[in-house]
Specification:
single chain, 244 residues, mainly alpha, minor pseudopilin epsh fold, binds manganese (II) ion
């Protein structure tokens, strides 16, 4: 970890150069009405799980949910609060999305935990018990136009999750051109971050860290992803899409 002023400045300088070298655009993304679509007054604080830990059985087992939400995600929220205090980010007046847009100006701790917190808060909302198997309405139309069909979309998204080496996330995002794009990010990075190769506002995110599935699925990440489609809360994803 970088824990002194000089190395932090060096980190900032290096990430800045990387952004220039790869030609990353920092243009504004389409923004949502708020961070989590009616989710929380204070998006920096971990919110209650919107269902019971057993609610996603048998796709996601209760023990995995308890550890994932109660230990892993809780730690991201706690460490984000620590980083915001140490690096003087105002969590009362500041927006979590603005912090992520400018994440290259902060420490690796802020990047890992800011992303970790945002990603998980979104992830819990993206799931629900037997909500519905398919998107409907405007989102369904946009998916069909962008990817050919819902099945083709699922295949492409599944591949993004399967092929993300190591830990990371698969995403459906709406980018600055208001196009739907599928991709993935490493570790706890997300498409809101200025350092991310994949850029956009996330509509649907899938955690492919081993901690999300290992107790039940062990090394079989593809089985986890294939079953996960059964607990996607498409009503939530539709709301995000329609709030752009
Ligand atoms: Mn996770």
């Amino acid at each position: 970890m970088l824990n002194n002023h000089t190395s932090r400045r060096k980190f900032i300088a290096n990430t800045g150069k990387a952004a220039i070298a790869t030609g990353i655009s920092l243009t504004a993304l389409p923004s949502l009405a708020n961070s989590f679509n009616g989710f929380a007054a204070n998006p920096f604080v971990q919110q209650p799980l919107p269902y019971e830990t057993k609610a996603l059985e048998p796709v996601i087992d209760t023990l995995t949910m308890e550890i994932h939400y109660g230990k892993h995600a809780k730690a991201y929220a706690t460490n984000l609060a620590d980083a915001c205090a140490a690096e003087k980010f105002d969590t009362v007046n500041g927006k979590l999305e603005d912090l992520l847009h400018n994440i290259s100006k902060y420490s690796p701790k802020m990047r890992n935990n800011g992303g970790g917190h945002y990603n998980h808060e979104l992830f819990w909302q993206c799931m629900g018990p037997a909500i519905g198997a398919k998107p409907e309405g405007k989102l369904a139309d946009a998916i069909n136009q962008s990817f050919g069909s819902f099945d083709a979309f699922k295949t492409q998204f599944t591949d993004a999750g399967k092929n993300r080496f190591g830990s990371g996330w698969a995403w459906l995002v709406i980018n600055a051109d208001k196009k739907l794009v599928i991709g993935s990010t490493p570790n706890q990075d997300n498409p809101l971050m200025d350092i991310s190769e994949l850029k956009g506002n996330p509509l649907l995110g899938l955690d492919v860290w081993e901690h999300a599935y290992y107790l039940k699925y062990q090394n079989k990440r593809p089985d986890y992803i294939n079953n996960w489609w059964n607990v996607v809360n498409w009503r939530f994803v539709e709301k995000r899409f329609e709030s752009i």
